[in-house]
């Protein structure tokens, strides 16, 4: 329970933790950033680590001269690309091992075929859009691997999505992070970054579910 409390406090006050880390350990902060973003995007069981808020705060710290913007963005970009690629490879490797058990409760041939068709048709948009959605960001590349999305196609849009995500949010933090109103309400902004995309995903899932129920059988 204490670990969960510390994790929540870190997520909501990531600016204070990062600033203290920079003060005490200097350039080692870039290694810390790489690990957090790589694990958040690359390990399917760790979707609760900060992503959007972390990048925004990094941009803000760069804006006040505590970190190097080019170095931070390069590290974050590399971690985001390798993380998604790792997650995709995990799904690609373990998916067939699970789905070969056609008579098990874990296998649903129709669901697999639908997922594969979806990622072949809409995978590019999904991989890019998922970057801005907590939790979905972690699961999308894994599912793309399980659904056997074309590897070259996934890799290309993984890079495009990472570029937009990292540079977009870091740049926003760089220019807005020092604005007094933003600094005073950063905890609320972090909550919004977590909850708003999540609510959009839940709404879309519920809408799709009701649409399926309404279809004639």
From TrEMBL:
<feature type="transmembrane region" description="Helical">
    <location>
        <begin position="122"/>
        <end position="144"/>
    </location>
</feature>
<dbReference type="GO" id="GO:0005886">
    <property type="term" value="C:plasma membrane"/>
</dbReference>
<protein>
    <recommendedName>
        <fullName>VTT domain-containing protein</fullName>
    </recommendedName>
</protein>
<keyword id="KW-0812">Transmembrane</keyword>
<comment type="similarity">
    <text>Belongs to the DedA family.</text>
</comment>
<feature type="transmembrane region" description="Helical">
    <location>
        <begin position="28"/>
        <end position="49"/>
    </location>
</feature>
<feature type="transmembrane region" description="Helical">
    <location>
        <begin position="156"/>
        <end position="177"/>
    </location>
</feature>
<keyword id="KW-0472">Membrane</keyword>
<dbReference type="InterPro" id="IPR032816">
    <property type="entry name" value="VTT_dom"/>
</dbReference>
<dbReference type="InterPro" id="IPR032818">
    <property type="entry name" value="DedA-like"/>
</dbReference>
<feature type="transmembrane region" description="Helical">
    <location>
        <begin position="56"/>
        <end position="82"/>
    </location>
</feature>
<keyword id="KW-1003">Cell membrane</keyword>
<keyword id="KW-1133">Transmembrane helix</keyword>
<feature type="domain" description="VTT">
    <location>
        <begin position="49"/>
        <end position="173"/>
    </location>
</feature>
<feature type="transmembrane region" description="Helical">
    <location>
        <begin position="189"/>
        <end position="206"/>
    </location>
</feature>
<dbReference type="Pfam" id="PF09335">
    <property type="entry name" value="VTT_dom"/>
</dbReference>
